[in-house]
Recover the amino acids of this structure.
């Protein structure tokens, strides 16, 4: 009985560690198989992205080949139309030639001489000519083909009088062919979307989903990193792993999804095979444990016999197993290694937390300093803005109180008091408006109005006051009907144009454009004034932020006009943005407001 008890204890001592570590090993293997499958999915995403890049490179090569054609350089557009048609004989793409103002001159989809429409956003073509770089569009709707298209544009400069934009366009179905190249399993979902998250091509439900936004979590992930893997639900309600790769030139993103259950099934299959191997190993280990347990029992019996022999004064018989000591040594080393690894991980985790706390503290301190500086600048500017009109009013009152003041001088004093009082009222109104807007206490009285007409009225009012006498203002406006509060729209336009006047030296030019872009009315105010550095562009709509200037400049201002613009635009459901190439190169402000329903 005693020998059998020792054998049972030894068998358990061997079996329990083997089962425990086998479970851990199988879990690690399951994770490794899953990671390997996801790496393979990422490689497929990269390969699909490479295929799309090759298609775009081919389109760019075609465009640059046509851009250097002798017929175009000589101005023979009919011959150029024939040559471009020959280049596009495969029917997968076509060529459109625009002039600098966005007018289509050649379109290989229709015979030469057909009346062609003007480009909806001519500023895109001018930007290509200005930068001299190839531009790849997002998914857009073609005016002539009447379908969703993507295009690649290259600048063509023949001489100082002839500047063109060459557009190589193709249907999304052409890109879908590139995504489907190779042997792709049917349960894989491959998609391509543009810089705004709009689906360009898709292997499943293409007719239904192309032109629609992709899942928000996929689009947000593609903006954070150029490639990666994430898990989410598709529009079909399937939980998938999605590997995405963003194309560096176009900014488009290729995403390859595979159902989670497919990945897990593959990994579990590999784990099942490994489990069978572990089970066989356990059986063998148990047999060996029984074998060495028997040897240990014999060793104990021998030790007892030797002790009895020593008690009797006899020399013991030599016996050695050579197993137990090694088992103890390795068990101790393994335990020590586990403890050391846990201690190192704990130390690294504490160090990372300390660094994160330090960075957070530095950011909070910098923000507090910026806010304190903005407050001080605002108080100084407010004091200046209030002091000047108050001083003028005070001096005028003192003049009126003088008994010998002439009637003409008294009238001028009263005019000064009225003008400066209106200036003070405008300052207080701006401050009150901003406070009410930021607290959500402003309600709009919406009417259907023409944004173009409202802008013209605003400019005419400024001209009446004489504020624009030293500047050139150009207006390009088409009817753009919106549902909005007329007073607030006038306030938006006045602040934007007044800001351009403030920061444009005398003799400068200001351009005001009103166009329709999709379902949005777009108001653009551009000037060739002092411009803005990048750090100011990022903060120009914050409260109390202003460009460089001094307290005694003629135009003044509290730095709240553009903050009012942003709040009012947001209240109308629109957006506002600012841009500037840099100091001394002018600024551009763009307001987008929803068009009214017909």
């Amino acid at each position: 009985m005693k020998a059998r008890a020792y054998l049972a204890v030894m068998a358990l001592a061997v079996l329990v560690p083997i089962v425990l570590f086998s479970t851990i090993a199988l879990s690690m293997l399951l994770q490794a198989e899953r990671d390997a499958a996801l790496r393979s999915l990422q490689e497929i995403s990269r390969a699909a992205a490479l295929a799309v890049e090759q298609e775009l490179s081919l389109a760019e090569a075609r465009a640059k080949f046509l851009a250097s054609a002798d017929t175009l350089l000589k101005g023979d557009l009919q011959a150029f139309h024939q040559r471009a048609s020959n280049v596009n004989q495969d029917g997968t793409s076509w060529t459109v030639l625009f002039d600098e103002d966005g007018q289509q001159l050649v379109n290989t989809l229709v015979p030469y001489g057909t009346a062609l429409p003007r480009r909806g956003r001519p500023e895109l073509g001018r930007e290509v000519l200005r930068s001299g770089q190839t531009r790849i569009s997002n998914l857009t709707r073609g005016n002539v083909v009447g379908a969703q298209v993507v295009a690649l544009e290259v600048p063509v400069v023949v001489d100082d009088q002839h500047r063109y934009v060459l557009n190589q366009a193709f249907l999304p179905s052409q890109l879908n062919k590139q995504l489907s190249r190779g042997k792709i399993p049917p349960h894989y979902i491959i998609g391509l979307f543009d810089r705004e998250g709009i689906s360009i091509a898709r292997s499943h439900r293409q007719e239904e989903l192309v032109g629609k936004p992709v899942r928000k979590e996929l689009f947000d992930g593609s903006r954070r990193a150029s490639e990666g893997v994430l898990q989410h639900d598709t529009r079909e309600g399937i939980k998938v792993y999605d590997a995405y790769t963003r194309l560096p030139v176009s900014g488009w993103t290729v995403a390859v999804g595979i159902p989670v259950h497919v990945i897990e099934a593959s990994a579990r299959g590999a784990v099942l095979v490994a489990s069978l191997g572990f089970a066989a190993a356990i059986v063998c280990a148990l047999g060996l444990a029984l074998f060495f347990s028997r040897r240990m029992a014999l060793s104990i019996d021998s030790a007892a016999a030797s002790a009895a022999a020593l008690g009797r004064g006899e020399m013991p018989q030599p016996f050695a197993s050579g197993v137990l000591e090694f088992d103890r040594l390795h068990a101790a080393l393994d335990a020590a290694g586990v403890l050391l690894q846990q201690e190192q991980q704990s130390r690294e985790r504490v160090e990372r937390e300390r660094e994160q706390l330090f960075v957070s503290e530095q950011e909070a301190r910098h923000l507090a300093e910026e806010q304190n500086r903005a407050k001080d600048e605002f108080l100084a500017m407010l004091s200046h803005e209030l002091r000047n009109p108050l001083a003028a009013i005070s001096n005028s009152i003192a003049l009126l109180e003088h008994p010998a003041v002439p009637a003409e001088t008294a009238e001028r004093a009263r005019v000064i008091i009225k003008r400066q009082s209106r200036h003070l009222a405008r300052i207080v109104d701006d401050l009150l408006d901003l406070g009410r807007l930021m607290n959500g206490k402003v309600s709009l009285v919406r009417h259907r109005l023409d944004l173009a007409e409202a802008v013209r009225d605003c400019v005419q009012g400024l001209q009446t006051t004489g504020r624009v006498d030293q500047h050139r203002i150009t207006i390009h406006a088409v009817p753009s009907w919106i549902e909005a509060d007329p007073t607030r729209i006038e306030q938006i336009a006045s602040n934007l144009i007044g800001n351009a006047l403030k920061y444009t030296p005398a003799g400068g030019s200001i351009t005001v454009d009103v166009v329709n872009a999709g379902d949005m009315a777009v108001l653009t105010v551009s000037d060739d004034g002092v411009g803005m550095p990048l750090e100011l562009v990022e903060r120009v709509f914050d409260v109390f932020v202003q460009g460089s200037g001094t307290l005694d400049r003629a135009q003044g201002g509290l730095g709240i006009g553009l903050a009012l613009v942003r709040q009012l635009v947001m209240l109308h459901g629109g957006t506002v943005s600012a841009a500037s190439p840099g100091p001394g190169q002018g600024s551009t402000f763009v307001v987008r407001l929803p068009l009214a329903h017909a």
